[in-house]
Amino acid sequence: MSAEKTRDGFSSTLLALMVALGSAVGLGNIWKFPYMTGTGGGGAFLVIYLFFVFCVALPIMISEFTIGRRSRKNAVASFKVLTGNPHTPWALTGFIGVLSSYLIMFFYSCVAGWVYCYTFKAATGAFAGITKDSAGAMFMAAIGAGGAGQPFFSKIVLAPVFWHILVLVVIGTIISLGVAKGIEKAVQVMMPALFALLIICAVRALTLPGAGAGLRFLFHVDFSQVTPAVVLSAMGLAFFKLSLAMGVMITYGSYFTSDADLTSSPLKIAVADICVSMLAGLAIFPTVFSFGVEPGAGPGLLFITIPLIFSQMPFGQILLFAFFLLTAFAANGAMLSLVEVPTIWLSEEFNISRKKAALINCVLIGAVGVLSAGSADATGYFGGFKFLGRGFFDLFDFLSSNLLMPIGGFFIAVFAGYVMKKQDLAAELSNNGTLNNESRVNFIRILLRYVTPLLVLVILLNGLGIIKF
Ligand code: PFF
Q: By alpha-carbon position, which residue is closest to atom 8 of ligand 1?
């Protein structure tokens, strides 16, 4: 029996696309992308982001899908299969992906936990009548601020740990059911619901008086706001948004159907992901501006400003629930992809069942994630521990986003552009000649050899502070 028949995988190209989109869509769409667009020159930022999506992200995603589907293996073994050498140093590229996915999960799961907590709070009407101060205090309690010096088994320390563990129980259960019966089924329910809830929130926001200022924030075109730092952040965002260099797209590529077009699928994913970010922006900024509040980015926007403002609107409690539920769905899709990478790796490399591998990973992420849960704020239980000048929470983010992601991305592009034989790349991207896309494949290979690695090197050196613009 061929590996393709015995191995779990996606049931159709459409579902494969939906699951890969489920990984791309995440917290980044809600607290990073719209705000970075608004402050980075609006339409001008979008043009720059699209440039990097085209020249960096798409070639890397195409390479990852190619490496995955051609080998039908996990992120590490795929390099061994494609080089025909079980001891190839290229397997390190896969290891970098597995390691980065762990690092991201160590903090992403905590943030997903805060989202779960807020979804629950919204469902129970906890935001009714909140003020600026009480919204801030609520957030501080949710992230375990003030836990330093308290006993570990106290409510303030354990509250974020509880929600972080709950996320892992949900994700671990779905992952242990498998690719087709678990991940695919969950995403099939979550993605359409996410779109529907997002459209409802955006329509409500756009019909508020004074919504136009939010639209101007998001869509004005101002190239004078585009600084070198903005350009570099657009590149980094493209990596994070499209879940690249984490082993995710190699792993998902290994489940793709044989007839999926690997050259056009990444483009569809990137466009749909931008649409989700724009819809999120349309749900958030018209509301924020309509209430005359300064927009901010990151946790403050999602966990303080949004509850504060939404709760002042008619039907605000229901909208808040809808908003946090869709954010929880977005975080789940991203978490599923992250947990799947080390699960299939452990399962295939150490010959253990998927369930056991999922359990081992969830216990590991659960345990190490406690360090993040206690260090999201400097006054948290573990807030006093610093490495490279950062607490655990920030350290995991820094190491994965600034270091491992660009290193992994660079080597993936070099592997597909230089190490893989041209005819192998062409065979995989043309589905063994059936797609008749020779010139497109040649163009992708030129990008992979001469453009993508150079641009990624720039992100890496800048992220490390070696070059500054
Ligand atoms: N793309 C996700 C987001 O925008 O929130 C985050 C993410 C998921 C990054 C999976 C990396 C990854 F492998």
A: 334
Ligand 1 in reach of 374 Cβ (< 6 A): no
8 Å CB contact between 179 and 10: yes
Task: Give the Cα separation of 127 and 125 in Å (integer).
Answer: 6
Report the sign of the C-alpha dihedral through residues 342, 347, 352, 354, in that order.
positive
Looking at residue 139, what is its pLDDT? 95
Spatial neighbors of 354 by CB under 8 A, at least 6 apart, are 8, 175, 176, 178, 343, 344, 347
The string over 166-175, giving b where at least 16 C-beta atoms fall within 10 Å of a residue's C-beta and e elsewhere, is bbbebbbebb
User: Does any ligand 1 atom lie closer than 6 A to the CB of residue 97?
Assistant: no
Dump pLDDT digits (tens) for 281-302. Answer: 999 999 888 888 887 777 888 9
Q: How far apart are CA 413 and CA 401, in angstroms?
A: 17
Distance in Å, CA 129 to ligand 1 centroid: 34
> What's the predicted TM-score (pTM) here?
0.94
293 in Cβ contact with 305 (< 8 Å): yes
Give the residue carrying structure tokens 């589905």.
431
The answer, yes or no, to whether any atom of ligand 1 lies below 6 A from the CB of 337, is yes
- The torsion defined by the Cα of 114, 115, 119 and 124, in degrees rounded to 10, comes to 10
